[in-house]
Predict the 3D structure of the following.
Amino acid sequence: MNNTQAKKYSNTKLIIGITEAVLSFVLLLLFINFNFSLQLEVYIRNFISNDYLTILFFVLALSLISLILFAPFNFYTGYYLEHKYNLSNQTFWKWIIEGLKESLVGAVIGIPLLFLFYFTIKSFGINWWLPFGALMFIVSVLLAQIVPIIILPIFYKITPIENESLKERIVNLSKDAGLNVQNVYKFNMSKNTKKANAAFTGLGKTKRILLGDTLLDNYTEDEIETVIAHELGHYKRKHIVKNIFIGTVFSFLTFFLIAHLHKISLSWFGFSEIAQIASLPLLFLWGAIVGLVQTPITNYISRKFEYEADNYAVISTNKKEAFIQTLEKLTDQNLGDREPHPIVEWFFYSHPSIKNRTNNLSSFI
Ligand SMILES: [Zn+2]
């Protein structure tokens, strides 16, 4: 694979992503402006009198409409493109089933949150952002804990690392970081993709490092060691806890802003009260605008954490060359754009480009 192909792959995904975002924004605006939203609520209320069931069917109807409208985009980026660039190991039906599973898990988590949201907006009026922000903090702590032990196993088979010499390396590495070898697992990423990845997830007792089998099978032990060291860097620098903290500050700020913007703009579209179900898409619109401002900020913080973890990987292993080599290999394998436009990287990238990561490491020590 060469960089021209990687660039084409990345740019196609980027252009489709932006088109999808603009399109959904415009459609949502039209949906509110031409009273379709009000009509949908009235229509549902013909059959249902309970408010909570009404909001549930309202959101389900919106999700179904968006699923149908955006199906061509999802197919193109999620299935077609991955096969065109030979990155996928999924058959069409596996792809559908994985998508269904994701939607189901999303619904199990999302529906109670929707009810909680509706409860707070009905009980607290314009101040809903405060109790809802507090609830979201509790939810994010709970989710961080259950993701590795309950959510991820729905999608992947997660097993302890078996390789003895690798285990020994992990023990040595972990001494300084204070994480146990029992916390390093492998997961069968290869059932879906040829790409490779690793992650640090969990909180408290559930914290662990996960390594894709696509990584374990194709990289030397030195290379794998540097990846584990990078993930340990996230642990050592408390990035998960910091992310929860930063996420909570941002969510209070976001909810506060959209609560007030939503209230101010209700009358523009003929809505009368903030707890009106038909006005929910207006809240989504404001959420999208605030999210747009927030994206580069959270990505900037995430890239900063990645540099910190990279630096930790080099300090703790003393294997700078092996680490750079690993990053190069991963970029090739995942068809990453080596040098995206600086504005694209600044806005969209949660991880620095390989060019910036190697620059950072070269200037380091
Ligand atoms: Zn990382």
Q: What stands out?
A: The two ends are 31 Å apart (CA to CA). The mean pLDDT is 94. The chain has one domain: 3-157+236-362.
